[in-house]
Amino acid sequence: MTWRFALVIEPAASDDVRTDFAADFRTIDPAAPALSVGELSTQRGDGIFESIGVVDGHAQEVQAHLERLAHSARLCDLPAPNLAQWRHAVAIAASHCPAGESVIKLILSRGVEHGPAPTAWVTAAGAPDNSRVRAEGLRAVTLDRGYDIGVPARAPWLLLGAKTLSYAVNMAAIREAKSRGADDAIFVSSDGYVLEAPTASLILRRGDRFVTPAPNGGILHGTTQLSLFEHLDRGGFVTAYETIPAAALTDADAAWLVSSVRLAAPVRAVDGVEIAVDAELTASFNDYLLSPRD
Amino acid sequence: MTWRFALVIEPAASDDVRTDFAADFRTIDPAAPALSVGELSTQRGDGIFESIGVVDGHAQEVQAHLERLAHSARLCDLPAPNLAQWRHAVAIAASHCPAGESVIKLILSRGVEHGPAPTAWVTAAGAPDNSRVRAEGLRAVTLDRGYDIGVPARAPWLLLGAKTLSYAVNMAAIREAKSRGADDAIFVSSDGYVLEAPTASLILRRGDRFVTPAPNGGILHGTTQLSLFEHLDRGGFVTAYETIPAAALTDADAAWLVSSVRLAAPVRAVDGVEIAVDAELTASFNDYLLSPRD
């Protein structure tokens, strides 16, 4: 991964109607010291983020990511982000991305402890080469997420559904999957329903029907899943949000983990049980996901 | 809060037998930029921490904090910290703390994304004035933590029991408590057992018996609770770790939230139900907790 660019943002109020926010931006060396040790993002994982895929300098689905950033901010009681300001910052970051695939990250932190205001920044970096996992697929294991499916509705302070910087558990789940000889994890609720992967959404195919776990189960509403469902709808397929029992994973005709940078990775096994990989359909998904999308 | 001091550490291997680690330390301005945007502590809350109380320049219970740091590192698959190195860093930080109360934080991060090694630093800052909450107590609300009491044993990837930097939920719980007119939260398991507060341990008194939730329920083993239990044992009281139903909270003769910096704060109400505050006993607890402890 190559760092390409970093921009520190002075967050504007959400009702600031400017269209040019350049005066709020400060370009920095992404490898240089930029954040103080008092940063609450660092001390408490207290902030939110988005990762946006960039293909040949085009940032994908920016609006969907910005809307989710605003949604996460609401769940975390952070000031509403000024989406025009973030859009401007993303455009600048994208202009620093060369041909090929990159990733732009947006981070909104609660700020420095006892400081006056949130801090915010945008980075751009080269994306890892995901061509192999897109073609060959990955092996997943299911891991208990600890919550039953009703928890998110009754305990909003658990921030389920917000994309917070507190991702230590997500990272630990991926390590656990690798320690079991797999590539990735699929979280399952304590009462046996499929949720999501630590950094991706799950899509299952049953015949001509494509389903994904309903996002009210405390999972992130995946921007790539949303985009792919629109694509499938246009192609005449049926798409649906469902409460999916874990047993349905290995009964599926095919399964994918989809995310903004890795895009569509076919799941070739769950807990050691093989699942068919539809190479042609997967390739068509990734052709679409690599095309410019807004 | 006043920043007093910050020290960046080049982490030594756990089997490095030096006794002087000064060459690994770099003093920095705590308000100045020190961390890069690629820090995984910031991007993912991926690291661990400890907060050590300091009274008149004496760092309290350093060994217990270092042992918990090592425990958290094991749970998070981080390299084992060199405790002699951390102890040396704490001693330097403590030497920058004036009379009165301060707090030293230890942070061990997984490092910069794709970087070679973990990053680590120690800060010292003035502690807030907690004299009022120690004397007058606080009002708490119970909040569902979402997990049943058996989850930690069966799902170690959830990192329950590790003091990670992913504290967004802990911070959200305190905000939720304040939005309900209370001062702090007490987490309860989804099956109705008392766990801990977002940044403190709970101790209940029933007659001459003091109980705290058993730490195998996925809670942190509180260093202040441990120290206070030793004190109570020496005073002839009975102390015990128990699985405590939530209903026992308001049946208790007294209750405290105890932590390294706020020390013993009596709980004067839970969910609006008043609990007696034993001012004399609480004052004796805090006298002890403010005395030099190793």
TrEMBL record, chains A, B:
Query: What keywords tag this UniProt record?
Result: Lyase
One molecular function GO term is: 4-amino-4-deoxychorismate lyase activity
Name the InterPro entries on file.
Aminotrans_IV (IPR001544), Aminotransferase-like (IPR036038), BCAT-like_C (IPR043132), BCAT-like_N (IPR043131), Class-IV_PLP-Dep_Aminotrnsfr (IPR050571)
Enzyme Commission number: 4.1.3.38
Keyword Lyase (UniProt): yes
Q: Which family does it belong to?
A: Belongs to the class-IV pyridoxal-phosphate-dependent aminotransferase family.
What is this protein called in UniProt? Answer: Aminodeoxychorismate lyase
- This protein's species is Microbacterium koreense
